[in-house]
Amino acid sequence: MALDEFTPADHIFENEEVLRDSHRPDELLERDEQLSEYQAALKPVIKGTRPKNIFLVGQTGVGKTVGTKLIREQFNKDQQKYDHIDVNFVYLNCKKLSNSYRVAANLVNKFRPEDDQITTTGYPRDMIYNMLYRELRNTDHTHVIIILDEIDSIGNDDGILYELPRCNDNEEVPPEDTYVGVIGISNDFTFRDNLSARVKDSLCEEEIHFPPYDAEELARILEHRAENAFVDDVLDSSVPRLCGALAGQESGSARYALNLLYKAGDLARSEGTPRVSEDHVRRAEPLVKENKIRRELERLPSQSHLTLYAVLALHNKDKLPARSLTIYNAYQTAAEEVVSDVKTQRTIRDRLGALQLKGFLTMTRENRGEGGGRYDLYDFGEIEISMIRDVLANTDRIDELFPNK
User: Fold this and answer.
1) Per the annotation, does 213 bind a ligand?
2) Does 351 show up as a binding residue in the annotation?
3) Is 64 annotated as belonging to a binding site?
4) Which helix (H) or strand (E) holds 191?
5) Most exposed of 130, 182, 312, 330 (fewest Cβ within 10 Å)?
6) For the chain, which domains are there?
7) Is 225 annotated among the ligand-binding residues?
8) Is 342 annotated as a binding residue?
């Protein structure tokens, strides 16, 4: 068949970029309360005193990272008015960093020029921390605020979250050299609960909860984005509200709602229909839901990927449902094969719980009666196992466990 001519003409979208995941808006709607709390928590910094350590928690797509970006930009603009402070915000996404050592090593490189980077493996742990402290002592800034996004990726290896918030108190970085503060951002509500008591005391001086958006809030966000995204008068007025209602029921995520609106518009464009209707939204929903599950799987930290692989390996041997100890033994074998840090049984049990909360696994409690004890059995949920296999087989390092993919 003859190919259609490529042309920039588009009867549906004026600027579809504003609906994409990569777009970072200049304002964050429906989050006034959280942004106000955030600014109040940073008040000591603009005054030139010791910063508070801040912990942000909320599921994906509720504004934590975008809010942090906007707060940083506003602070950097406002601090130019004052001579008594010079604040450096250092951002690190911990998605692929499975322990405190790797976080510390990557932070060292944040302070170094490209031609003086260190390798992120092979040093004793104490040496890595000392390198980081040296960089912090040698900075010319009055304050360094370290932002650790997706910090739950490190699991229970939370040493960095004890070291950094206390480095001024412990004189590893004297306050007269620079004040150090930490902002931790987590998508996992169970992560904070599993932190050691000493870390909670250090990190969670100010905890800011970003709740899911409700349907009305999502509709207003979509209506605002739609003004720039779509050609005038191609969007049925009920479409943003329907997208907001479906997303509110599904997750309360603005990202999910925007993806739903974008896919509905994409269907209308590909079909050549003049308007985006509720029917397009209804047909877009299962497609977006499948993509959402895949993205959630892809975004899991490496230790969760290894845990899922262990469950998959047991599934392939018809050994599900399985107890956490059985899964741990399979996990340990896989982790050693890819030369990954082998976590404790408690850590993997926590990972299993988090995977259950996300709907990837189910858990049933087996009770053997009086004197027989009870234990939990894990199995896959309603998710397509073929999707789990495909995601794992295309994940760095985990792919080594699929020699015949």
Assistant:
1) yes
2) no
3) yes
4) helix 189-193
5) 130
6) 32-209 (3.40.50.300), 214-297 (1.10.8.60), 300-401 (1.10.10.10)
7) yes
8) no
